[in-house]
Amino acid sequence: MENGSLEIWLHPKENGYSQTRKLNFLQRLSIAIDSSSLYVLCLSLFLFTFSNTALHYLHDHCETQIVHCDLKPSNILLDNDMTAHVDDFGLARLLSETSIDPSQSQIFSTGIKGTIGYMAPECELCSNVTTYGDVYSFGILLLEMFTGKGPTHEVFTDGLDLHNFVKAKLHGQVMQVVDPTLFAPGEVGAATAAAAENMDGDESIEDSVQECVVSILQIGVACSVEVPQDRMNMRDVTSKLHAIRVSFTGTRN
Question: Which is the catalytic residue, given 34, 60, 70, 79?
Answer without folding.
Answer: 70
